[in-house]
Design a protein that fits this description.
Layout: H1 2-22, E1 25-33, E2 44-49, E3 52-58, E4 64-70, E5 73-80, E6 84-85, E7 97-99, E8 106-114, E9 116-121, E10 134-139, E11 143-148, E12 154-160, E13 163-170, E14 193-194, E15 207-209
Parallel strand pairs: 1-8
Antiparallel strand pairs: 1-4, 2-3, 2-5, 5-7, 6-8, 9-12, 10-11, 10-13, 13-14, 13-15
Amino acid sequence: MNRNRYLVNTLRLFAVVLCATARGQNIEGTVVNSITGAPIPGVSVQIKSQGKTIQTTTTDALGAFRLGGVPDGRYNAEFNKRGFDPPARDADVRQPFTVLAGASIHRLDAKMIPLGSVCGSVFDGGGNPVPEAVVDLMRGTLNGERGKSGKDGTFCFDQVSPGTYILSARPSQGLQLKPPESPGDERHGWVRTWYPGVIHTSAAAKIVVRPDR
């Protein structure tokens, strides 16, 4: 009789150990504005392993998040929200990390970079707004963003990473846009123009975009 009780107790204890191991580890952290230090709510936080998303959550009003029951393994974390760049590539939270059951809670504290904006207007030589002009905002290797001016000639890029850019405008292909009137025998036409009003990239003024607070 005593022997049977011993076996039952041993099996129960074994089951408890298995359940505790299966819970996995917890990951907690906060996400803040890299400029102001203010918490950022609504950030999508993803934990990935070998390119596959394992768990996803969203930061609360205080910029905090928690992922529970993460299995043992090697992971990467991704942070995304409109209006912000992810943490810098050399930040600790961008590096792979290991989760082990039974270890202390793993923390991921991230700083996201607020994006800036570049807005303006396109005018012809006579000071009239140019609608549907192709506007390119470029950096480094001349890769960047493309947009169009509105009916009133205005344009705006509102998701711009901090950095140095050059800006150009030109008529849309296929758009029958009459050039401004010219005095005398002069003939006017359209040419790609670089900010603030030059025709060569070497003379283009640099536009410095700073983080938007």
